[in-house]
């Protein structure tokens, strides 16, 4: 007998769109095409991809589709940051968790498994990077040195990380332009200045400009709305922040360009990481499939039923807590508690059967 989640993995379907550096118009078309999905599918909306996951086939117009274990592996890869422009960056994990938080039933179990596998994998790999490093990538791709003034458009998470990275790399002056000013202490710590987005064109010139504006920001015309840019223009927006290329000799680097510029060595690193992640995922799937026929299997199944019921109850009564985190933490606690008893009971099936009875869900249990 297979656990429900393991059986369901065979019918898991992922519909994938790559959206890095699309124009707002193209992005609108993709969102329109993707809107055919019903509420039984969950959407993972990250900076470079728009993906739908669900149980059962789908007939939408997605350019890429994955099934079964391939779909689950892909979800774990995305959550691990293996598809991010900056390998292993941590922001995408939050985006995936938010996306799958609305799932229920088998889809919830599968998504939880992929996220848990991704977290374990990230811990093992000791990933320690964030999307601020996209600034390094852009500078490398354009062969521009981190000198002079850096103007960052946007004070959201990406904008702040890029500004921090710019200061660490040695840019002389850091200026953050946004509608609302960022935290004053943060600006002081960075020795950065803040300006309003509407006042930018008044400046004489700036060396490097990085667009980090969110999807809802108005597109910016770099010719009329920005000061003259002398060395490099970087657009990290998805959709793109700038309406058209600057008609000067200044290079424009987008996320799509950063992805193109990856070295064969980096592609190989990503492939190897993906193989290691798959191992973690397959092990977790096998663990989830422990059958309930043996006394030890029955004990684990009973304990798992109680744990899951408690985790659901905890999540329901604590809406501020992340249900995936509750699930992961309770699972890890129970695993730890039962680790040694399980080892011992492996050689004592009769005792295991008696203990399994004690944990049999019955009247009065949750
Ligand atoms: Zn679809």
CATH architecture of the largest domain: 2-Layer Sandwich
The helix/strand class is: alpha/beta
CATH class of the largest domain: Alpha Beta
By CATH, the topology of the largest domain is: Beta Polymerase, domain 2
Count of the domains? 3
What low-confidence regions span 5 or more consecutive residues with pLDDT below 50? none
Task: Identify the bound ligands.
Answer: zinc ion
Average pLDDT rating: 89
Describe the fold and architecture.
This protein has 366 residues and is of the alpha/beta class. The strands form two sheets. The chain has a six-stranded parallel beta sheet. Strands 2-3-1-4 form a four-stranded antiparallel beta sheet, sandwiched between helices. The protein has three domains: 1-129 and 262-289, Beta Polymerase, domain 2; 145-250, Rossmann fold (3-Layer(aba) Sandwich); 292-305 and 326-361, no CATH class. It contains 13 helices and ten strands. Helix 11 (295-317) runs antiparallel to helix 12 (323-345) and helix 11 (295-317) packs parallel to helix 13 (349-358). Helix content is 48%, strand content 14%. The mean pLDDT is 89. The relative contact order is 0.11. It has helices at 4-9, 24-34, 68-80, 91-100, 105-125, 134-142, 157-169, 184-190, 255-260, 264-288, 295-317, 323-345, 349-358, and strands at 12-18, 42-46, 49-55, 64-67, 149-153, 173-177, 193-195, 206-211, 229-235, 252-254.
């Amino acid at each position: 007998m297979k656990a429900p989640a393991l059986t369901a993995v065979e019918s898991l379907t992922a519909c994938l769109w790559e959206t890095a550096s699309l124009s707002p118009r193209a992005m609108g078309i993709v969102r329109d095409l993707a809107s055919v999905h019903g509420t039984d599918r969950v959407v993972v909306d990250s900076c470079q991809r728009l993906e739908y996951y669900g149980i059962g086939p789908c007939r939408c117009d997605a350019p890429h589709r994955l099934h079964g274990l391939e779909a689950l592996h892909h979800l774990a890869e995305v959550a691990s940051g293996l598809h991010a422009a900056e390998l292993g960056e941590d922001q995408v994990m939050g985006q995936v968790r938010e996306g799958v938080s609305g799932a229920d039933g088998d889809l919830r179990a599968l998504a939880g498994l992929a996220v848990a596998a991704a977290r374990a994998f990230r811990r093992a790999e000791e990933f320690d990077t964030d999307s601020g490093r996209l600034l390094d990538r852009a500078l490398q791709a354009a062969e521009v040195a981190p000198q002079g003034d850096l103007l960052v458009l946007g004070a959201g998470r990406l904008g702040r990380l890029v500004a921090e990275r710019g200061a660490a790399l040695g840019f002389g002056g850091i200026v953050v332009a946004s509608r609302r000013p960022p935290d004053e202490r943060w600006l002081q710590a960075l020795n950065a200045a803040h300006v309003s987005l509407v006042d930018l064109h008044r400046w004489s010139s700036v060396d490097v400009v990085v667009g980090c504006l969110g999807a809802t920001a108005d597109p910016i015309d770099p010719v009329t709305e920005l000061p003259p840019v002398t060395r490099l223009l970087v657009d990290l927006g998805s959709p793109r922040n700038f309406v058209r290329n600057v008609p000067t000799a200044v290079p424009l680097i987008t996320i799509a360009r950063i992805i193109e510029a990856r070295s064969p060595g980096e592609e190989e690193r990503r492939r190897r990481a993906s193989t290691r992640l798959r191992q973690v995922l397959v092990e977790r799937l096998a663990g989830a499939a422990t059958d309930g026929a043996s006394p030890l299997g029955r004990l684990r199944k009973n304990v798992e039923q109680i744990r899951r019921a408690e985790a659901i109850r905890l999540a329901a009564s604590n809406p501020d807590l992340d249900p995936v985190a509750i699930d992961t933490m309770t699972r890890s606690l129970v695993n730890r508690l039962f680790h040694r008893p399980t080892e011992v009971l492996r050689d004592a099936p009769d005792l295991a059967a008696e203990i399994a009875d004690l944990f049999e869900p019955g009247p009065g249990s949750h």
